[in-house]
Design goal:
Structural class: alpha/beta
Helix content: 40-55%
Low-confidence stretches: none
CATH topology of the largest domain: Rossmann fold
Oligomer: single chain
Strand order of the largest sheet: 1-10-7-4-2-3
Number of domains: 3
CATH superfamily of the largest domain: NagB/RpiA/CoA transferase-like
Radius of gyration: 26 Å
Length: 462
């Protein structure tokens, strides 16, 4: 198994020095920053809206078992089939069975982070199925053989010139096409796939417990086509996407739109309650909903980290994070990058393998400040660090170093021992981790308490 921490450090070090990458990211995020304040104006009290949303997600997660049972009962009553998958392997196996039953050769797929999480495209390719991403950004990334760079904007790190060159290389288009021309090329290519596909796969932005439905919000209409054209519709969704009621959507759809892209509301908003009914002329003949755990109950079991399950995948914390803006999405080598990825990945994929992500933060708190459902992300990063240490994931040298530091810090006599040169030597030469990426510390020759005592003594003498 590769050393995830070493790989992360190596890739992030290279990317942080890539000025062209930084230029592209700063340009795209600046566009985002310009429109989000405009989108927020639709809320008469933005903070109140966020607090209400957080309380709704609290209800959804605290009573998740009941909400999931209600969802299953109601959507199966209309002919959908619900499949519970404990991990990625179970989800892929079930999808494989469905595709085999339908003799599937071509599958269209709308944008879905959870299918990236289980590596669905790679699995389908391994069993001989042509899986086509229909979201333009995801389609670009698929052509380039890359995973999504960002939760909301998969190809954020590419310029229009990069995309034009990619299309010329992969699709044989003329070089230097405009964004509008590139979009038309993709539209023609993808429309062919919609009518060929036997199976369509979507994710879901929300699960609605009270009516038993999935809610999808998008800007391109590709999710609607992916679930309506093929005869079989498969939904893959994490169990945490639950909302108690359909009446929560008038709050959550605008929040997701504003904090995701700066829009008041996205272009296409769809509620799917099951397969085509007897009285309906359009829609899939069969619908399967795969409810995925894949480590989410690890977060649920911890009363502190449970809050991370409130996330609505808007990507706002990525756009606000100074670390993400310097090292980019691919350096993390995880499905979910940025602050939310650093919080949830150690619980989804293993604390020992991914504890390093929780240390890759300035703890500035900007992620918490911008979160539409007010998740205390920077505090959860600290909780992950604490959990890693308590769980024995820290090295012996690290534990000894901090024990020595704690002992000295709590003892004034020890803190005052030695001059500045001795302390400089201890920190800069013995604890070398500090100076790997920073300049050396330079301690004062005397401590504050020593200077304070000297000042008091001088006053008495005066």
């Amino acid at each position: 198994m590769k050393d995830n921490a070493a790989s992360f450090i190596a890739k992030s070090t290279i990317k942080a020095a890539d000025l062209d990458h930084r230029r592209k990211i700063n340009f795209n995020i600046s566009k985002y920053n310009a429109v989000v304040p405009i989108g927020k104006q639709q809320f008469s009290d933005n903070m109140l809206a966020r607090e209400i949303a957080k309380n709704k997600k609290w209800d959804a997660i605290e009573h998740l078992d009941k909400h999931l049972e209600n969802f299953e009962k109601r959507i199966t009553a209309r002919g959908a089939k619900v499949i519970w998958a404990e991990n990625a392997e179970e989800a892929l196996e079930e999808i494989g069975k469905i595709c085999q039953e339908k003799n599937c050769k071509t599958l269209v797929k709308s944008k879905s982070m959870v299918t990236e999480e289980i590596h669905l495209n790679h699995y389908l390719e391994s069993i001989g199925i042509d899986s086509v991403e229909t979201d333009l950004g995801e389609y670009i990334q698929q052509l380039d053989g890359e995973p999504p760079y960002h939760i909301v904007t998969p190809a954020m790190h590419k310029s229009k010139e990069d995309v034009a060159k990619l299309f010329a290389d992969k699709l044989g288009t003329p070089g230097g096409l405009s964004p509008e021309e590139l979009t038309q090329v993709a539209r023609i290519k993808l429309r062919e796939k919609y009518v060929q596909a036997e199976v369509g796969v979507t994710g879901a932005n929300f699960l609605l417990a009270d009516i038993g439905a999935i809610a999808i919000t998008e800007n391109e209409g590709n999710a609607r086509l992916s679930c309506a054209f093929p005869k079989t519709h498969i939904v893959v969704v994490g169990i945490e996407k639950m909302l108690p009621s359909i009446h929560d959507l008038p709050l959550f759809w605008p929040l997701l739109s504003t904090y995701g892209t700066g829009q008041r509301v996205t272009v296409y908003n769809t509620i799917v309650t099951g397969p085509k009914q007897a009285s309906e002329s359009d829609g899939p003949e069969e619908m399967y909903v795969i409810l995925l755990d894949n480590g989410r109950t690890n977060l649920l079991a911890n009363p502190i980290t449970r809050e991370a399950l409130y996330c609505i995948r808007c990507g706002a914390c990525l756009n606000a994070c100074p670390v993400y803006k310097n090292i980019g999405g691919h350096s993390y080598e995880t499905t979910y990058s940025g602050p939310i990825g650093k919080v949830i990945t150690p619980h989804l994929q293993g604390m020992e393998e991914y504890k390093h992500l929780s240390y890759a933060s300035s703890l500035c708190g900007n992620c918490t400040e911008v979160c539409p459902v007010r998740i205390n992300l920077h505090e959860l990063l600290l909780e992950n660090r604490h959990e890693a240490v308590v769980g024995g994931s820290s090295s012996i040298a690290e534990r000894i170093a901090w024990k020595v530091w704690k002992t000295a810090s709590l003892n004034r006599t020890l803190m005052n021992m030695g001059n500045g040169k001795l302390k400089n030597w201890m920190v800069n030469k013995i604890f070398k981790g500090w100076t790997t990426h920073r300049s050396e510390l330079d301690f004062s020759a005397t401590t504050f308490s020593e200077m304070w005592e000297d000042q008091k003594a001088n006053k008495k003498q005066a």
